Amino acid sequence: MQKELTCEQVGAIITFYLEGKLSDSLKKAVKKHLDSCPECHAKFEELKQMVNYFEKSINEKNDTSDDIVKSEYQKRQYAEFKYNLSAYLDNELDDKENIRIKKITISNPIARKDLEDMYSFKKILHNSFDITKNELKQDFAKTVINEMHEHKNNTEISFQKLTFAFFAILTLIIIGAIKLWF
Ligand SMILES: [Zn+2]
User: DSSP label at 152?
Assistant: First the structure.
């Protein structure tokens, strides 16, 4: 059975909800809470507006950056960067893509500025719903997510362990590749 979420728990994972990063069952639980809690609903609407505003300002910047980014190659490179930026920040790219984006960021000042903007935006986003202590925020969100999944059976748990091992190895490979690259 699905557990009920408290306002505090919803606050801790709301940004993941907005970014579509939660499992289906957790998504449902958050939606259920938002539908029945005006306070959290209002906060969520506020957050959504903030995200829309940010996306709009990024798109407006794209129009002007066309004049600055001159060559076709640079334009294509920049488009690729834009497309992958969010995945890059969330560590969702493979090591080859990761290095490409890193390289674009270094060679293209506009891309670098976007990356910095995106970083600070993500920071604001994930700080805006702080209900508990700031430094515990990220861990608290993880705790909530883990708690919601604690009913999972052993097969799934060992699968999670395998997944974790896979990502640990992948991280080592990426670090190695980055060192080689630079
Ligand atoms: Zn609430």
Answer: -
